[in-house]
Structure formats: structure tokens, C-alpha cells
Write a structure and sequence with these properties.
The structure holds 2 protein chains of 2 kinds.
Chain A: E1 5-8, H1 12-21, E2 25-28, H2 34-39, E3 47-50, E4 59-61, E5 67-70, H3 75-80, H4 82-87, H5 89-96, H6 101-106, H7 109-113, H8 165-171, E6 175-179, E7 185-189, E8 212-218, E9 226-231, E10 242-247, E11 250-254, E12 261-262, H9 264-271, H10 276-283, H11 295-316
Chain B: E1 2-7, E2 10-15, H1 22-29, E3 48-51, E4 54-57, E5 70-72, H2 85-92, H3 102-117, H4 136-142, H5 153-164
Parallel strand pairs in B: 1-5
Antiparallel strand pairs in B: 1-2, 3-4, 3-5
The chains are: A alpha+beta, B alpha+beta.
């Protein structure tokens, strides 16, 4: 690991000021992704601002019947919360489908949303990657791209976002809150937090530099069934090949794009009376593979149909 | 950077380079060699320790992040010469060959049994509202963050099962 300095933030505003005014500074919360990437020299911060103990680890009721999940809650805290389990089972299911319990005990809600792609070329500094080094090229286009995106990719980057948790939150219509460097609070739909790669895959979110995610706001639970389904190479402790979250009328797809993918075309088609398979065909009309990941298109369609069958059964019960 | 961590009940003050992982602080600075460095990237679980009661990968944490925390390692589980029940069960059930993953397996299992008792769900949990029933499938899933290269999984399961009691 390269040398860096470390400080523990006294409060959220001090943290955003420290990161926004110190070149090379990064927030550190659970550290499960950042420290891993620092060990392989992909992340090279010169200063770490530890926000892990900021008082942002509460899960609170909102006035409209939703939940406000502080950004410093651990993944296992959220998955195990009785209110989440009772009202947002898709979120509990998605979280416990990700990582190991050791990682979920440490990883935080904010860091989970902001984790970096697991594209093998992003992780390997000896290979070109536009996300790591703008203009270097993309080794995944012609390489080992089994994990790559099938929606919203560009010639510059075909990586996929790895979060399970975020897929469920997007299906639920969650919003995120952030504290900006000037002390102002901003909120946006979680579906708008991450950017598609375009020509600038190194720009990953629509947060200003130095902004700190402070909370995820879940709206009241939707009418209808909820389920998270994940297809992967091992039965446990493996990233998704593809995943699907259904929460009432909301549908989101995981590991298919550089962001958790809200399947609005499928939602619209279903609302108009289409069968699940037809709705997924509409969603995936523009999907394309890059060779080794072509199978994802059929796989995610079939997984989504299975998830929709499951929730429609739940509704009937 | 000065950091004080309570390790196995004893406050230990350390002057550390911020790059020092919790695992390296335990092994190299406190000479607690029970916690093992397997992959050093959070994938194998050999470094599993308990921090404020929760199991984590000590390799994916900086020691300076744990100022004031209470850490329990495999060395802290036994009471003098009396083995922890999981240690005794691992011996009884021959739940290892080379033994390298064993400290992590035991620390992990210790926390796992408490998590299940507290109702923490896993992906094997079918009813998120009901108390956890520790079926074999539940134990395997909850231990999936601990890899055993000798593949002693059936014996590890038997050892944990012996301590957990029968599933209902």
C-alpha cells in the first residue's frame, strides 16, 4: 500500500470539507472495497477521512411510512432490521445474497452504493482500463468479459455495477441524501446516482466531489409482492451474473449495466397487460453482449420472468 | 499513529503506520499469530476476528480504524487450559487437516451462533419474520465466508452442529 495520512472526522461537515479541499483525499467507512483496491494499487488515496463513526447509523421511520437508513448503517444491520424484514423483504434478501457475513458486518450502506466495479481489468493495473486511466482503452471489449454489462455500455467501458443491495433499493424507488462541500443537503432518486459510462467512465456518480452520502430514503412499501433473485457461479459468496429485484410494480436488474438498472420499459409493458416474457423482451430490445457475456441476455430475461411469477403468486395468496 | 485497542480483554497501545491492517497489528505487533493471513483480500476468512462482538475480516481493516474497539481473537476464546466448546468440538470431530483456516472458522462460528440466536437472516432463511432454525443449509451458508482448502467442510459442519444443538 502507498503511504497515506489518516484522520477521523469529528462531524459530517468537517468530513466533506476535508475531502473536498485535500487533493487525493477519500472517505473511508467500512473499507472493505477501498482497502482491497488500495492493496492492488488501483486506489491511491493520499489522505483518508474516516467517517465510519459519524452518527449516521440509524434506521428511522419517516412521516409518510417509509424508512430513512443512515449511510453508516452496516449491511447486516439493515438486512436484520425487523422493519426491513417485515416491510421490505426484497432488501433483506438482496443484502444477504451479497458477500459474506464478515463483509456485511463491516460494509456500510453508503459504501455499498459507491463500491467500484469488479471488472477484472479494472482490478489489474497492468491492463488498459478507461475507468482507471482515462484514454487508456478497454481490455474487456476483446477480453474476459463474462461479467460485463449488456445494457448502457459504451466502447469506452463495458463494466457492470456489482451491488446486490442497490438493485433492491432501486426497485423500491429509493432516494439518496448527500451533504455537499458547502454544507447544503441534496437528494436525488437512487436510480439517478450512478452514471452510465459514455465517454467518461471514470466519472461514476452524479455527486459533486467531496459530497458525502448521508442516507437512503425508502418510500412506503409498495402494494404487491417482493422478491430478489440472483444467478451466479457458486451457491454462495459470489457476485451476480445477473440479478432481479421485484417490489410491487417496481423492477430492477443487477449486474447488467454500470448502474442498478430500473426496468421501466418492462414495468410499463406489464402495466399495459403484457406477459412477463413480453415485458422483458421490451426491456432487453437494445441489450447486446460482447462475446462471453451474451448468455446474460437470456438469463436475465428468464430470471425476471421467474421473479415476476413468484411475486404474482404472492399477490394472489 | 497512536492507537489503543482492547485485545482479548487487555488494552494495548500501539504506535502504527496508518497502513497497518488490523490483522498485521495483531500478528506482527502483538505477536498473536492465531489469526491467519490467507488471501489478504477478504475472500478466505482465515483472518476472521470479533470486533465489538461482530466477526469481520481483519485483513480488510486498518488498525487505526479500531481505536477504542474490543477485539477478540482465537487466543481469547479459551479460558486458560479449558478449551472453548467450539475448539473442543473441532478436535472431537476432526474438523481440520492442515489447520490453517481453523482459527478463522472457530471465531466465525462463535459469532455465527450468536447472530442466528439474535435473528440475523441469511439467504437460506425462508421466513424473514420467524426465529432462525439452524438447519445444515443455514450453517453452511452462514459459514460461506470461511474457505477450507483441505475441504473439511463435513466435519466443520458436524463440529458446529454439535455445539449448536439439533435443528428443530
Amino acid at each position: 500500500m502507498r503511504p497515506f495520512t489518516y484522520e477521523r472526522a469529528a462531524d459530517a461537515l468537517a468530513a466533506v470539507r476535508a475531502v473536498s479541499t485535500t487533493p487525493g483525499a477519500r472517505f473511508l467507512a467500512g473499507g472493505t472495497n477501498l482497502l482491497d483496491l488500495m492493496k492492488v494499487d488501483v486506489e491511491q488515496p493520499t489522505h483518508l477521512v474516516d467517517v465510519g463513526r459519524l452518527p449516521l447509523a440509524e434506521i428511522a421511520e419517516t412521516e409518510d411510512g417509509g424508512l430513512r437508513i443512515g449511510a453508516m448503517t452496516t449491511n447486516s444491520q439493515v438486512a436484520g432490521d425487523p422493519r426491513v424484514r417485515a416491510r421490505y423483504p426484497v432488501l433483506s434478501q438482496a443484502i444477504v445474497a451479497g458477500g459474506s457475513q464478515q463483509l456485511r458486518n463491516k460494509a456500510r450502506t453508503g459504501g455499498n452504493l459507491l463500491q467500484r466495479t469488479r471488472c477484472p481489468y479494472f482490478y489489474d493495473p497492468s491492463k488498459p482500463c478507461n475507468k482507471r486511466q482515462p484514454g487508456a482503452g478497454c481490455a474487456a471489449l476483446e477480453g474476459l468479459n463474462r461479467s460485463a454489462a449488456i445494457l448502457g455500455a459504451s466502447r469506452a467501458c463495458i463494466a457492470a455495477h456489482p451491488s446486490d443491495m442497490a438493485v433492491a433499493m432501486v426497485a423500491l424507488g429509493a432516494r439518496v441524501e448527500a451533504l455537499g462541500p458547502d454544507g447544503t443537503r441534496a437528494a436525488m432518486p437512487l436510480a439517478d446516482l450512478h452514471r452510465l459510462p459514455g465517454d467518461t467512465p471514470h466519472l461514476e456518480t452524479n455527486l459533486p466531489r467531496g459530497a458525502l452520502l448521508t442516507a437512503v430514503i425508502l418510500p412506503p412499501p409498495p402494494e404487491g409482492g417482493q422478491v430478489y433473485m440472483k444467478a451466479r457461479d457458486r451457491a454462495s459468496y459470489a457476485g451476480a451474473l445477473v440479478s432481479v429485484a421485484v417490489a410491487g410494480p417496481g423492477i430492477a436488474l443487477g449486474a447488467v449495466a454500470l448502474k442498478p438498472w430500473r426496468a421501466r420499459k418492462a414495468e410499463t409493458a406489464l402495466a399495459a397487460g403484457a406477459a412477463p416474457a413480453e415485458a422483458m423482451a421490451a426491456e432487453l430490445a437494445e441489450a447486446r453482449g460482447f462475446g462471453r457475456n451474451d448468455f446474460k441476455i437470456r438469463l436475465v430475461a428468464r430470471l425476471a420472468v421467474a421473479a415476476l411469477d413468484e411475486t404474482s403468486k404472492g399477490r394472489g395468496a | 499513529m497512536m492507537t489503543t485497542i482492547t485485545v482479548n480483554g487487555e488494552a494495548r497501545a500501539l504506535d502504527l503506520d496508518p497502513r497497518t491492517t488490523l490483522l498485521d497489528a495483531l500478528r506482527e505487533h502483538l505477536d498473536l499469530k492465531g489469526s491467519k493471513k490467507g488471501c489478504d483480500q477478504g475472500q478466505c476468512g482465515a483472518c476472521t476476528v470479533l470486533v465489538n462482538g461482530a466477526r469481520i475480516n481483519a485483513c480488510l481493516s486498518l488498525a487505526v480504524m479500531h481505536d477504542g474497539d474490543e477485539v477478540v481473537t482465537i487466543e481469547g476464546l479459551a479460558s486458560g487450559e479449558a478449551l472453548h466448546p467450539l475448539q473442543a468440538a473441532f478436535l472431537e470431530h476432526d474438523a481440520f487437516q492442515c489447520g490453517y483456516c481453523t482459527p478463522g472458522q472457530i471465531c466465525s462460528a462463535e459469532a455465527m451462533l450468536r447472530e442466528a440466536a439474535e435473528g440475523q437472516p441469511s439467504q437460506e432463511t425462508r421466513d424473514l419474520a420467524a426465529p432462525i432454525v439452524l438447519t445444515d443449509a443455514e450453517i453452511r451458508e452462514r459459514m460461506s465466508g470461511n474457505i477450507c482448502r483441505c475441504s473439511a467442510y463435513p466435519q466443520i459442519l458436524a463440529a458446529i452442529r454439535a455445539v449448536a444443538g439439533d435443528a428443530a
